[in-house]
Specification:
The protein has one helix and 13 strands. It is mainly beta. Strands 3, 6, 7, 10, 12 and 13 form a six-stranded mixed beta sheet that branches. The protein has a four-stranded antiparallel beta sheet with strand order 1-2-4-9. The longest helix has 5 residues.
Length: 155
């Protein structure tokens, strides 16, 4: 697992799918988890959203290493009014995780048959100045965290 460490904080991102091979017409469930493998509590923005402004970014490459763009791009973003709500932030205790399941179409993500490498990048969509209380914040300034890659075959 690739992780980011800043001042003793250890956040790990995990990506999983239910199997490694799919037909082009299949649906897929993608599980994304943000895990605290450190020794102290961490606070994150509670809403795990998809896209560059949401925090969770799927990086898909074909067998040649070329980036694959999904048919439908992820464009979730933080709603500004949530930043002043303490319920929008979550304290993750050591050895705990927080996750979300994304349901999508294989055709949307990969476009055609082939072998693909998929990684998940997590970049907190919220700067430190919005965090209050709880564990040490994991914010935009802490930089991205990448999952280990997984391989997906599409028939």
């Amino acid at each position: 697992m690739l992780s980011a460490q800043t001042a003793g904080k250890r956040l790990v991102v995990e990506l999983s799918v239910p199997r490694q091979t799919f037909a082009l017409g299949d649906d897929i469930s993608i599980t994304a988890k943000v895990c605290n493998w450190g020794s102290e509590p961490l606070s994150i923005y509670r809403h795990l959203l998809w896209g560059y402004r949401g925090g969770l970014i799927l990086e898909i490459n074909d067998a040649s290493g070329h980036k694959v763009e999904p048919e439908q791009l992820d464009e979730d973003s933080v709603i500004p009014s949530t930043l002043s709500d303490p319920k929008s932030f979550l304290e993750i205790l050591p050895d705990y995780e927080w996750g979300v399941v994304r349901r999508d179409k294989i055709r949307n993500l990969f476009g055609k048959p082939g072998r693909y490498t998929v990684r998940l990048k997590y970049l907190s969509p919220v700067p430190k100045k919005y965090f209050a209380g709880g564990g040490e914040p994991w914010a935009t300034e802490d930089g991205p965290v990448l999952s280990d890659p997984i391989t997906v075959g599409v028939k």
